[in-house]
Design brief:
Layout lengths: L2 H24 L17 H20 L18 H11 L8 H16 L2 H13 L4 E4 L15 E5 L2 E9 L9 E7 L10 E7 L5 E5 L10 E11 L10 H18 L5 H11 L6 H29 L8 H23 L9 H17 L4 H12 L21
Parallel strand pairs: 1-4
Antiparallel strand pairs: 2-3, 3-7, 4-5, 6-7
Helix pairs in contact: 1-3, 4-5, 4-6, 6-8, 6-9, 7-8, 7-9, 8-9, 9-10, 9-11
């Protein structure tokens, strides 16, 4: 073993020991979860408490140097190496140590601030982001601009050193609990739709903002619709350049796709195998074939996700287009939901342990197929960006936004 390899091994061992000591002192061992436990709350108070619990844990990690491990020290991070994140994640597996939703917004906004933010913005915002002091939501989609996000109509008119924003957003995760928002607005309706958008950082407690939770089919209220009525946002809160917010938004969306595909999640395959055994379906050739497909897709997703997340930790361009992960997750949700119902049959409609899990597995397929960009958007991204195929014939890319028909 070379001296360099020995030093690296010693550094990793030292960091692992430090992580173990921190977790043992500040986190509780993870309780064994029930096989059919749901990963969402239907009670708004319980959901809010879980959100704040994750926010508090993020603050604890920040205080002890385990938040933003690869971010510079002067911006609130540890200034560490990408391998440290992997080691810390391994050690945290046995503990109730999750920042929940906060983790996703750090993954989306953190790299975006590093790429597009001014020195002043990074200095002011990154420490508060990494500590959980600021909790951010994404205010992108609109009732008339979902799959075609660039067609958004939320308007921002400049008034001196401020923008006055009026419009509506929808499908905004955790907006009812967040203190800040990433907001896309239309600042130049005379420009083509991709060129007249600006990315604003908004205080969710600003006068004129109203958040209304949406009740989903599962009973959860994680999504929201947000109304903005003459909300004043300082021009200094523009991320990137005025009228060039689409490029900034693409950075967020790419990170979001990578996050959704690369996030660790409980094995659905193992639960489906147990379900098949419960209902004596393990000898059914069709069910066995579907279980094999579930296992293969779950393994492929895990391997692709690890490749992409490793690149992101290193601040490198992912070797696989993140859209394929998002699409794979959504398609897996469809397969798994259909299989759960096929195995359980009428029992899936009961109120026991298995019924609610099977129902949630089926119903969650719709949210994951829409959130973070629909399947159709992901396929277009893959066709154009990864495969270099020609764009679909259309004439609205160069036309002024205000001349394009909208519903």
């Amino acid at each position: 073993m070379s001296d360099t390899t020995t030093v690296e091994a010693d550094e990793q061992a030292a960091f692992r020991a430090e992580a173990r000591e921190f977790l043992a002192a500040h986190a509780k061992p993870k309780k064994e979860a029930g096989l059919w436990d749901l990963n969402f709350h239907t009670d708004p108070k319980e959901a809010a408490a879980d959100f704040e619990k994750g926010r508090a844990w993020q603050g604890t990690m920040f205080e002890h140097g385990f938040a933003g491990i690869t971010y510079p020290r002067e911006l609130g991070g540890r200034g560490g190496q990408p391998w440290m994140e992997g080691i810390f994640a391994e050690e945290a597996l046995g503990y109730d140590a999750s920042s929940g939703f906060i983790t996703s917004t750090i993954a989306m906004l953190g790299p975006t601030l590093m790429k597009w933010g001014t020195d002043e913005q990074r200095t002011a915002l990154l420490p508060r982001l990494l500590s959980g002091e600021d909790a951010w939501c994404q205010l992108f989609s609109e009732p008339g601009a979902g799959s075609d996000l660039a067609g958004l109509a939320c308007r921002a008119v400049r008034d001196g050193d401020e923008f006055v924003v009026t419009g509506q957003k929808v499908w905004n995760s955790a907006a009812q609990w967040c203190s800040k928002g990433m907001l896309l607005v239309r600042t130049n309706p005379d420009a083509p739709k991709h060129r007249g958008i600006t990315f604003l950082l908004v205080d969710m407690h600003s006068p004129g903002i109203e958040v209304r939770p949406l009740v989903q089919a599962t009973g959860a209220q994680h999504f929201n619709e947000v109304f903005l009525e003459e909300v004043r946002v300082p021009v200094a809160n523009v991320l990137g350049s005025v009228d060039d917010g689409w490029h900034v938004a693409r950075t967020v969306l790419t990170n979001e796709s990578a996050l959704i595909g690369g996030s660790s999640r409980a094995s659905t395959y193992e639960r489906l195998v147990t379900l098949a055994a419960m209902f004596n379906r393990t000898g059914d050739a069709v069910i066995r074939q579907d279980l094999a497909r579930c296992y293969i897709r779950e393994r492929v997703l895990g391997l692709m996700g690890e490749r992409i997340m490793t690149a992101i930790r290193r601040r490198e361009v992912p070797p696989v287009d993140p859209s394929i992960l998002k699409l794979y997750v959504a398609e897996n949700g469809v397969y798994n939901g259909n299989l759960a119902m096929a195995i359980a049959g009428p029992a899936a409609l009961t109120e026991g342990e298995v019924g609610p899990w099977a129902q949630a597995t089926l119903l969650n397929r719709y949210g994951i197929s829409i959130g973070g960009g629909t399947n159709e958007v992901q396929r277009n991204n893959l066709a154009e960006r990864a495969l270099g195929l020609p764009r679909e014939p259309r004439d609205d890319h160069q036309r002024p936004w205000n001349t394009i028909p909208r519903n």
